[in-house]
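Is EPZ placement plausible here? Inputs below.
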Amino acid sequence: MESLVINGGNRLKGQIRISGAKNAALPILAASLLSPEPITVHNLPALEDVKIFVSLLRELGVSVESGTEEGQKGVVCLDAANLSSFEAPHDLVRKMRASVLVLGPLMARLGRARVSLPGGCAIGARPIDIHLKGLELMGAKYSIAGGFVEVKTRGLKGARIYLDFPSVTGTENLMMAAVLARGTSVIENAAKEPEITDLARMLNSMGARITGAGSSTLNIEGVSGLSGTEWSIIPDRIETGTYIMAAGAAGGELELIGAEAGHLESAITKLRAAGLKIECSQNAIRVRSRGRLKSVDIKTQPYPGFPTDLQAQFMVLMARAGGLSVITENIFENRFMHVAELQRLGADIKIEGRSAIIKGVKKLTGAPVAATDLRASASLVLAGLAAQGRTEITEIYHLDRGYEDMEKKLRGVGADISRITHEGGSGK
Ligand code: EPZ
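Reply from A.M.:
I modeled the complex. Tokens:
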């Protein structure tokens, strides 16, 4: 089992290169199922979740070749000409609920899918009713038995679909189902995340006819087939926000190369209000942190609101800010798992329903803590950077799901952080 050891107190200084976005990569890999022609993907991040998704695609019969030569890092060629299965097995889906993203493309391409129900995770029940109701409106029938959802259709047809919640993967699944349906679909109350817009652009480069991506209403005119394409993954806005806040937690100044500030406007506004100096240029963000931050309230919202995936990291900044702040989590029902761990480092936080009330303290003190989910583990790293003394974080397989080379990137800008291996299980 591995853990991260951080000796806090070092200010950060230097450049960090931002990797491709996990939450753009997964739907784009899923989209390879839609075409019998090869798809080449560039700037794919080396993450556990991407590896699991590639294994799932191989299970379905997609041939996947990763670039091996120098300069081919993060390049993957996918060929879904001969799919051999329509089943997403439980052992893969239980590790990563985003496996549900094969549902839409399999229904579009094969008219059948059998996906293990993702089940809940640390942050919530994570149902997929929005995905299934949308497919039903397009002419699919589904049944749930033995922990699997079985979906069938004699041919998807265009439909008008209203999403009860602007679900990100729900929007992505239904968009991918609609591109090969007979007729036109309209998806209302669609999610507007940059990852949705990027997926729509990629599908259009394959011959799809999607308009309205990035707005609440998507129009998708079904076509008879899609060609191959070549696509590059957009930079990871959540990784970017995490490193902006690492500078806020540890103090110092960082330049984030490849960052796309336009994908992070609400977070940048709040971080500037807290006192961080943030300058945005074409494809980089410079952040400087001097002195104690101010307490600022946030409420997480669907894009373009403050991202739920940056809530835990923001809480670390507020834990040492000079006042009282309120953080309200409106997207997931149980996304405060990091609070108990931050309290072990001396944070003064009280949970009242969907809100956490944070009273800034002058200092945090290092201690052993355990990661509970992906973004909570990132917040514990930031807290370790800010704390005085030694912090050891266990269960860091959560972190490896969504952050490429985190300790290497942080060491490169002066953090005292290393990964150690203990004997015993992998912790998975
Ligand atoms: C995506 O998850 C992201 N994952 C999450 O990032 C992100 O936190 C989330 O969107 C919200 O922005 C990927 O893109 C792979 P949702 P997703 O469907 O699509 C409820 C990370 O850390 N809901 O937008 O699963 C649901 O319970 C991960 O990178 C239904 O009720 O999220 C939740 O309360 C974590 N029924 C809310 O909607 C449904 O059918 C938002 O879920 C679907 C969702």
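Short version: The chain has a mean pLDDT of 95.
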